[in-house]
From TrEMBL, chain A:
<keyword id="KW-1133">Transmembrane helix</keyword>
<protein>
    <submittedName>
        <fullName>Peptide/nickel transport system permease protein</fullName>
    </submittedName>
</protein>
<feature type="transmembrane region" description="Helical">
    <location>
        <begin position="199"/>
        <end position="225"/>
    </location>
</feature>
<feature type="transmembrane region" description="Helical">
    <location>
        <begin position="21"/>
        <end position="42"/>
    </location>
</feature>
<keyword id="KW-0812">Transmembrane</keyword>
<keyword id="KW-0571">Peptide transport</keyword>
<keyword id="KW-0653">Protein transport</keyword>
TrEMBL record, chain B:
<dbReference type="GO" id="GO:0055085">
    <property type="term" value="P:transmembrane transport"/>
</dbReference>
<dbReference type="GO" id="GO:0005886">
    <property type="term" value="C:plasma membrane"/>
</dbReference>
<keyword id="KW-0547">Nucleotide-binding</keyword>
<dbReference type="InterPro" id="IPR050388">
    <property type="entry name" value="ABC_Ni/Peptide_Import"/>
</dbReference>
<dbReference type="InterPro" id="IPR003593">
    <property type="entry name" value="AAA+_ATPase"/>
</dbReference>
<keyword id="KW-0067">ATP-binding</keyword>
<dbReference type="InterPro" id="IPR003439">
    <property type="entry name" value="ABC_transporter-like_ATP-bd"/>
</dbReference>
Automatic annotation (TrEMBL), chain C:
<feature type="transmembrane region" description="Helical">
    <location>
        <begin position="103"/>
        <end position="125"/>
    </location>
</feature>
<keyword id="KW-0812">Transmembrane</keyword>
<feature type="transmembrane region" description="Helical">
    <location>
        <begin position="12"/>
        <end position="32"/>
    </location>
</feature>
<dbReference type="InterPro" id="IPR000515">
    <property type="entry name" value="MetI-like"/>
</dbReference>
<feature type="transmembrane region" description="Helical">
    <location>
        <begin position="177"/>
        <end position="196"/>
    </location>
</feature>
<dbReference type="InterPro" id="IPR045621">
    <property type="entry name" value="BPD_transp_1_N"/>
</dbReference>
<dbReference type="GO" id="GO:0005886">
    <property type="term" value="C:plasma membrane"/>
</dbReference>
Amino acid sequence: MTALTLSRLPAPVLQALARPAFLIGGGIILMSTLFALFPAAFAPYDPLAFNYAAIQQPPSLAHPFGTDNFGRDILSRVIWAYRIDMMIALFATIFALLIGVTAGSLVGYHGGWADTIFGRCVDAVITFPFLVLVIAVVAMLGPGLINMFVAITLVNWVYYARLMRAEVMTQTAHDYVSAGRVMGYSSGRIIFRHILPNAITPVLTFWMTDMALAILLGSSLGYLGLGAQPPLAEWGVLIAEGRNFIFTAWWMSLCPGIAIVLTGLGFSLLGDAVADMLRPKG
Amino acid sequence: MSGLIQRESRENALPETANRPALSVQGLSTSFTKQGRDLKAVNNVSFDLAPGEILGLVGESGSGKSITLRSLIGIVRPQGRIDGSVLWKGRNLVTMNEPQLRKIRGREIAMIFQEPMSSLNPLLTIGLQITENLKAHTSLGRQERQKRAIELLDLVGIPAAASRLDDYPHQFSGGMRQRVMIAIALASNPELLLADEPTTALDVTIQDQILRLIMDLRTELNMAVILVTHDLGVVAQSCDRVAVMYAGRIIESGSVGTILKAPQHPYTLGLLQSVPQDQPPRTPLFSIDGTPPALDDMPTGCAFAPRCQQAQGTCLESAPDFSLVGSGHAAACHILETARPSLGENK
Amino acid sequence: MSSISYLFSRLLQIVPTFLLVMIFIFLLVRLLPGDPAIAMADAKATEAQLEQIRHNLGLDQPMPIQFAKFVGNVLTGDLGNSILQKAPVLAVIQDRLPVTLFLAGYSMALAILFSVPLAFVAALYRDRLPDLLIRSIFQISLSMPVFYIGLILLSILAARLKWLPVGGYGETWAEHFSHLLLPALTIAFYSSAIILRNLRTSVIEVLDAEYIQFARAKGLPQRLVLFRHVFRNALISTVTLLGLSIGNLMSGTLVTETVFAVPGLGRLMLDAIFARDYPLIQGLTLTFAVLVSLVFLATDMFQSWLDPRLRKS
């Protein structure tokens, strides 16, 4: 972005851009994305190369995260795992977002019996602990990355839809919506051209935070053996591999976790900053 | 701070009152720190109040009138910095610490709030909310407190008072809640009542009843009242004197009669013209263009200058002093000298 | 009297929700890709054996009849037989339930102990050092998956310092407390972050409320303002939050039981999944839903007890 376009942004946005939350969060996510796209450029070693001369070495300058029981460099494995985990952040949320926004808009705009049924579904879904429901679906589909995405989406869209419904209902009460109706616009046009742009902000903010949650959830399922499957390098899987050595080689489990905490923090800081930026001024 | 006390010799422009003032406010300022900047919500406010007198504090929302009122007894939130002096019976409330202030609040100076809905604790019975006040400030026993609470509810005109002590705020109507709040405030016979827009949230007929109640109580208990309002009608009906606030300052003050008949400040004039009175039907109401300045965007000169139709060069350069323009009548305006005749001719 | 009728009306509201919960659990197995009988049987099962399994599961009948039977069975406590444990599902769950309830209660108690005082400190010192410190610590813990918190505590407190047992449940009450301390701390640390963040906001809302300013203007003693006025009002949102976070807590126990080898429902659920023990998975999912509903109900009752506005006269 050039200085010229920057100076055209409204003042609150500029202020938000200069905030530490945005700079740190944005920096972390940018770095994570680069790691995910070009792991080979950043990883100091081949993540799969066995080195029997350097088995279970504690963190050192040569191996900042130490090495595992096959002598593989853990930092390199963590960097290669960014691929999978950033993919989880995206794919575990994006379909839920799309389905949720569509369903939530329709239900919120039209109300009536569809809304009643939807309300009951929400009640039923929140009656289950989130993880229990996801695990139950994964259990049926069978463990694996793709099935995990399907399971999370099946449960998660409800939360997006609930949020969207509430927003759309607020917007529907505004005059511009009745004006659109008077002008004879189709409900599809009113919902997606007029209401949606006004109602989408909280959903997008929630999406940022949800990507942080998706990473936590994805790595948890990986750890439990229900998500990404070994030998795929995923943070939860890496941590699970080190679990048996926690008494002798703590770094095998604890070092990959740093990436989870960092990325999760990045998404939630960014989410907070974006929320601040988009909030009506005041 | 102590230097200010000497200024009681009233070279300040406020009207003389027969008695020694019960309350004397000098150079009161309240500021908040926001993102490293100091924002003055109340700026160098001074006024006196005699026992049994009703002073109206008038202004648009955001003019600092409510914060002025709250600053007097130190319950500003979020925590702000209060400077100046508030002399109450010879003691400076600004320099007092919390435990000392707590002995004055509710006992000598009571306050009622704008929103009877949100100002009563929803979880506690009315009886408890009255008696806890009595417990804090009197030596009455349990039975006596109970009895006094019923008396108080009677006094403010709540029917079947005895049976309502165990009721919760949500079981009362808006006007009745405001009466309850007044009963709570009166619990320990205060000498000064601070009333923060006590009628704004109520229907017109109820408004009238509440104002009458406050005026009656003033007469009965010889209690002084500061009445914050944005409604000049309320002022005309109930106040002895009035001070008009704009952007954190008092810009005009005097007796109600003088101010309503011959306002000196263009802002006061504008306020008066925006109240419908004796006009033929369908006369469009006057309104002052623009909005008051934001706290973080105060003009260097007179704060009203950007909205003032008569503003001149000096108005934009320096803030006018508050000076006497008649007997007991003061205003802060640069153009008073030159433009006074036209200003005086309200009708 | 009124609270009993309130309880009754709340129970009535739960009925349609639970019908949906049952439909979901019922469909879970029916909509399985492929034939659940094949999935459940071992590879060399004969067609006759598969037919037997289908018959046992009632899969050879039309869907509505299957569902009616399923609901009837659930209501009479018949959740089928666990393939893994070779025992009735209900008995298996009853056997493990106390462990999970103990762990959940233990961690909830610890979480309240951590988060409620800290939330008040943070709210009272809003935007000043104690608040910023508390918020940053919990912001970081919000970014940690439960199992990772568990492993950190495990490697420090159990592996390195050898202060605490590594896991299990123990035999006596004293052993329960010491064995479950690590898992409970793990869950408490994770739940505290969520509770604290929300509770801080609602305490600030209460502190800013006009009735608190009015209480101050009455010149009441500080402790009376704080305990009678602030605390009571903040307690309502605290209880709501604790109630709503029960789902999180249950998710937390599920993972934590795995990390620390605690023989509770969560651990059982994973065992059931890897053993493809569908009746047990169904039973456990239902159990978790019932537990959460009971907590929601208890929260509602407690709220209506605290808040006169919710009481029906």
